[in-house]
Amino acid sequence: MNPMLAYLLFGVMLPISFADALNLIFFHTDTSSTASFNFLQQNQALSSHYLYSATNSDELLALFDLLENPKILIDLVDDRVNHYDLSQLCKEYEVIHLVVEDDLNYLTDWTFSGSTSRVNYLESLTILFGYFNWSQGIIFNSNQNTFIKDYLLDFSNSFKNVITEPNSNINDIVGRIAVPLGSTMYYIFGDEAYSSSIQQALIEKKLANAGNGIILGKESYFDPIIAGSLIIAEKNQENTTSKEIYISTAILKIINLIDSSLAADDPYQIKITLEKSCLNRFCQNTFSLVNFINNSKTIVGNFNNTSISLISEIIFPGNTTTPPISTKKTLPISINAGSTNYGQVPSPNVPIYARGTSLAIKWINEGLGILENFQMSLFTYDCGATIYDSTYGYNCFLKDIDKFGLTHVSSYPSGVVLGTLQTFKRLNTTVPIVSAVASSAALSSISTYPWFSRIQVSTIGLSSQTPSLLKALGWRSAAVLYQNETWGISTYLAFQQAIEEEGGITVIKSAIIPPALTRDQISNYSYILQEILDTNARLIIVFMYDDLLGVILEKFYDLGARNGDLIFFSIIAAAVTDIGAKNDTYRYKRIELGCPMMIFQMPVWVGAFGEKIYNGLANDYKTVPPGLSCNYFDSAFLIASSIDFMINRGQDFTDGYKLNQTIRSIKIIGCTGKVAISKGSNDRELDALSIDSNILINNTLEVYHIGIGSPYSTQYLTIANPFFYDIKYTAIKPPDLRNQDLKCPFPDSEIKTFYKGRYLVFGICFFMALSTSIITFFIWKNWWNVKIEDLKEKYEISFEDFIVGATIAIEFFQYLAMGPDLDPINSFLWDIGEALSLNLGNFIKLTNGVFWIVCDAVLGLSAAWIILCITVFYRLDEKYNHIFIFRFLGQLAEFLMPILGNLCFIPFVSILLDVFVCDESIGNRFTDSFLAKDCYQFCWKDSHIVYAILSGIAILIYEPLAVFCRPLWQEFQPVLHVKTLPLFLMVKTIAQIVLIVLNKTVKRAEAATHGFLFLLALLLYVIFIFKYKPYNYPRFSWWQGVSIVGVMWLGFIATISILLNNSGFPWIALVIAGWTIILTIGFYVQKKKYPSLLYKKQGKDTSILFKFAFQVGSKSKVNAHVFNNMKKSSKVEPSSLNDS
């Protein structure tokens, strides 16, 4: 063609024809493709060829018609439809069609690409990721590259995909989506604008740090911005910085292949050459791995879809040569948990306590519901276990200053924590510090230590709760010892202030002791300890560290105190177990007085989760885990929960200040219960306190859990196990004052359960119950097997009717006293019941012979009762009416029979049986046992034998007479309208005997069993009542049964509280609620079914009745008239009794 014609047609001067020249036609229609054309036509590598430009199909067809072969069409338009049309046209005109495209499946075989194929690219990615074991991570890809994410998601389901466009709020997406996923690998596939925005977001969210990997796809033909990132570049495209350069390089590679052809003038030969050189018509099949370091690109390796080779070392983000691991992102924290004490004896316990932190990290990484897309790591320092040397500690931390991680868990002693805080301040670190314990009050200040929090209530907080909690446990007085230094003084003052503000126990005496005394030095302060002993206080509250407490215990032992004489209380957790090494010569003294010891501390192993942690530690380490391991667990758990909280909200958890604020603000449920840091301080909020003691097992002191005190809960006290008040496991609380209530002639520590005496009491009581039952049945069968007629008419109520009704009410309280104890209600209902049962031990100190005075009175009244019964049986008052004494005895008998024989039955039998209760002893012989009611009275010798014989005789005579006379009394009452079924009186006697026996035997040995037997006895009793109707007046029968149901309800609640070892206000509420329901039902049924058949006249007979009640034996005409009428109607012949 004429060059001038070409110039006129296309604006391009056709050069003179050369033998090896190619006719290169550039097709471009838009700005982007035109820019590529302008860049290419300036390339000197094409100067030997003819260059033509076409911007539409007409121009292109004209060139196809005018130009001779060989013709090469360079398609610069990035459009698949355009590619398809031009490919078809090239096939028709036998023109080689060159594109930069990764998919040729829809194009003809005359089309060749200067890029790699999509399949080759994806397969090569597989080789690369497989080499580095990258099978997880987050894929960032724009909508134009969805095929990449689809392939990678099929390759590994551990990949996570985030698609977004450059104009989206990428920072927000990375914060809310990418950060919580916890990946260490980030793959970016997109153009320059997209890739740059993602990289900026990763930097801002601190995801481009050491341990992470940044991979940029082959579309990233520009300089990255993250140091250490890796770029996947096609071969010879490593330094490409723009799209124009990329296209130019790709096209020139194909032109060079054509130039090398021996037959460049034949289109078919060119096509064959390209097909041989290009795999599947793709003329690029190899990739370079480019490392962006020092603001420049460095080729570090080559790979394709079959192999990979590295030619130099790779530098990853954070200037590290360690390849990132394609797993969960690592969250590092550190802990000071070695055993070294610089220049001092090592502390092996610290690593044992810190096992809790290790277990927390392990469980979180295995799946605990938090940080599911992350894994935590723990670096352990050994910079001072329990003693902190500032120089050693500083150098120790400085050596591994880069290992602090996100947070640091300090060793537990307050001195180590204070030293660590000062060291971290010198090192200018902004790492939050969490302590598992560290109870010093000095650490509470948030202004002094703003980077510190602790999983522990301060000792001041503990001491302020001590008075009220001890009172709830039944203590009313104590002596106090505290050490003379800042902590001891401040703790005692907080304790004293709590007493002044809220009450609690009474401090009999307080004394201050210098700290850190040795065995030799403590002797100089023996007088102080002697003064404490002289107060007779049993409870000794100590505000001192365990080392001082140890020598205090030894000195108390030297002064004569023994196990059980003193009960020590501490708020230092270590006090219960660390009171003496096993090889210590004087350890036996410490064990003697330091076991049991009571402490209040933060609860451990709380709930099902706490129990799971306990079992986990026990299984992992094959030993009983110490309680402090629970605190250490919560330290790591609080840190992890804080990080998880921030991640889920897209917050920067690597910001130490923000993480510190989060640690202070969140709440968790951990091994120690609810954990939250108190506002305005570094202390844990006080939610509950664990009440613990120690127990000696295999010569090892171990923590023994008693219960939980909840100062801010409606249930203030929850008891799980009984407190043992001595090493013999005595669970009965002794008096607050030693030798004060009982005034025993021997130390309390010598007292032990005398089982032979207990078995003897059991035998005597059960023999009495059996004999009473037989005699009662015999009496009923021969004399009182009679029925009563129902009350059908209305009568005026008499004083005698009042007595029958009052008996029901009084017996209600007597039965309560015979039942299981419910501590919270003892102060009211039990006192009434005990009083009505003549259980005078609660009201009179029955010591030094006082009990015998009471016993003498009961024996005397029993003798009087026998005399009165003889008077009635043989009607001596009638036969010898002219003799005053017999006449008086007759009058007295008729009035006292319902009192002495009915209402006094339970108290009389109880007092007489107390003579046989000798189940405690100071030796192994019967004569070494002493009376439960008076420890000065030894049993089974001297006067006790006399009383035992008299009491036995009194019981054998009193009981049958009482049984026989109970129904007899109503036969002498002409104005008594409410009659009692004799069979009921017989059954009531047996029921009362059973309750008395259970109270004197089973209740003293096993309270829960007593509760069940008590309920069973009353259940049978109430069934009998409702079936046989004990009174001829239905109302009285109904309320007799209702009263027993009320007793059963209280007995049931008391038994449950005993089984659960739990007492508190809720039980009282349940009792009151139950009684309210029972009374409501009682009155409702009474109204519906039982009409009133007794009425009371106003202002007439009441005064007469009361005058009679209180003026028996007077010579007033009124009383004489009433008495004479009663006397006339009460004459019952013996034969008539037999007939009845």
Automatic annotation (TrEMBL):
Keywords, ordered alphabetically: Membrane, Signal, Transmembrane, Transmembrane helix
Pfam families membership: ANF_receptor (PF01094)
Localization of this protein: Membrane
GO CC terms, sorted: membrane
Residue ranges constituting the Receptor ligand binding region domain according to the UniProt record: 430-681
Superkingdom field: Eukaryota
Bilayer-crossing regions: 759-780, 801-818, 850-874, 895-917, 945-969, 981-1001, 1007-1026, 1038-1059, 1065-1085
Signal peptide: 1-19
Protein name: Receptor ligand binding region domain-containing protein
